[in-house]
Amino acid sequence: MDLQEKILTSFLQLENKGIIDLDSNIHKIREKAINAFKKTGFPTKKEEEWKYTSLKKLLKYDYSLFPTNENTIELKNVKQHLIHEIDSYKIVFIDGVYSSYLSDTTHEGMDICLMSSALKKPKYKMIIDHYFDTITNKKDSITSLNTAFAIQGAFIHIKKNTIVEKPIQLIHFATNTEKALLLQPRNLIIVDENSHVRIVEKHQGLNNDNITLTNSVTEIFANKRAIIDYYKIQDDIENNSLLDQTYIQQKDNSIVTINTFSFGGNTTRNTLEFHQNGEHIDSNLNGITILNKKQHVDNHTLVMHNQPNCESHELYKGIYADSATGVFNGKVIVNKIAQKTNAFQQNNNILLGDKATINSKPQLEIFADDVKCSHGCTIGQLDEMALFYMQQRGISKKEAQGLLLYAFGNDVVEKIAIPELKYRITKLIAQKLNVKLGF
Amino acid sequence: MLKITNLHAGVEGTEILKGINLEIKAGEVHAIMGPNGSGKSTLSSVIAGNETYEVSQGEILLNNESILDDAPDVRSHKGVFMSFQYPVEIPGVTTTNFIKTAINAKRSYLGLDDLPAKDMLKLIKEKAALLEMDRKFLSRSLNQGFSGGEKKRNEIFQMAMLAPKLAILDETDSGLDIDALKIVANGVNKLKNENNAVLVITHYQRLLDYIVPDFVHVLHNGKIVKSGGKELAFELEEKGYDWLK
Predict the structure, then answer these.
(1) pTM (2 decimals)?
(2) Which of A277, A299, A316 is the last residue of a domain?
């Protein structure tokens, strides 16, 4: 049985399991989604948006869609994967199953809890009907696949005029105890007027014997004057892969920043879509990719400037060693009425290995005439003169290379608004680049 | 201290240095002057070990030991310092962190432990004062957004920190106004003693008013065509280089 057939059978199982309400609006959405997926199946390289990322190798495994055992893990074994030095809210899953023991949720003045309860409990019905699956791309078949199996994930609703002091950590652990497991978390994040929240999302495998493929979808709504800082930390073990689709809708004067740190995993696809549905909106997309061996990362971004007087700033940096491969596809669409748009996009890459490649493709479609848009893309090697300069001061060539690479990614690191996270990312980058920073 | 014999070097098959002979003893200040394209900067790069240049013949001895096979960082540890004509900007690495890394790399080469933070700070404070450097420059990214004068001051600051045996000042006066020039020269003079040596590479005589050389050499077409005392610099200033060709 191929994977697609298995998925369709599993969907019937899901309906028969009795864990979901078959009469709900949500289930109608699920049914529509499974039909959409059935029609198109998994994307192939023939599709323009998937030209440089092949899922073929990932899809040859016999994934189970529901874990057979409920796994527990000890805090002390996973503490290193959490930002534990500071107080934070935590929503933690182990193989897709909520771990109340590792989590720290709340309903006080805001909801930082589970998608499963939001989908079931009547008090959330209005919110769910209003927001759920309203901004996803219905033509994206793996998003549809996720929607069909949308049961669990994080549900975050920050009510108006709230500054959430503690960051929220969203952690998905994969124990890799099944031969091959497909996880499909579904997150919904709503930030109401004048509220501010910081979120860190991480997918972490704990054992490299088996395979976990995660197909994650997150919808984020920033209402008027909301500020959202979002950090995606992708430093997974070699066997695990991530397909991550994030959809963002912004209203007037809101500021949303998505930072994507891609340092590990086998194959990572980040689909990131911003929809500006208001004026004076600021959308920021930052990313650092540092890969080696045969790792692959595909950053596929879209910014829809639908209204006038908005800005978008996009900065992606990539360092590719060995045979690592990368894709940057940055699409910016400026609608006819979106006058006075400022849209900036930059993608800089350094190739360290002879077999490393990057496919960088900026796509600007501008239909308004009074706009400022720019894009730049560079692919290069390290500056020989800078290396000589540092060596002259007594720093070894290897360390000088590391320092220069660190410096290359630094402007993205500087944007991290959580000091403990910034420290961790700095350390992680140093470790990835195999450099002792000495400070 | 430094002995160069019959040095031939070039880049991609083009010979630039065509048989340089030069000896610098401890306690001396030498100046190398010459028109553009005479090979001045190549000479300093080759002494410092820039791998872009290939040495085809000759020898460079530092304290009677050949350094030709040493990587630039090893030459640095052995006491060679070169102040760059165009110091490189490195975003995200502060001057303080950069110099700390450099100092500790040298200490590790010498088999010493890292310098304790307190001592490092004290040293930095002392040397920054020598160059009249504002402390805030030290916490900024290395050379990023620095003016020409600030960059050169930062070079001499690093020289002061590393206390080299042989300091090569490559066109240190270019891009400096007279005040900055005085500060930089003053810094060099204070660092000068009977155990170290300075090699000033310059196009103009101006810097030599402040860093007074014991010997002046004229480089032309990859060879030293004339050597003399400091009065040679004045002669060159007056007559230009044409009479030597």
Answers:
(1) 0.85
(2) A277
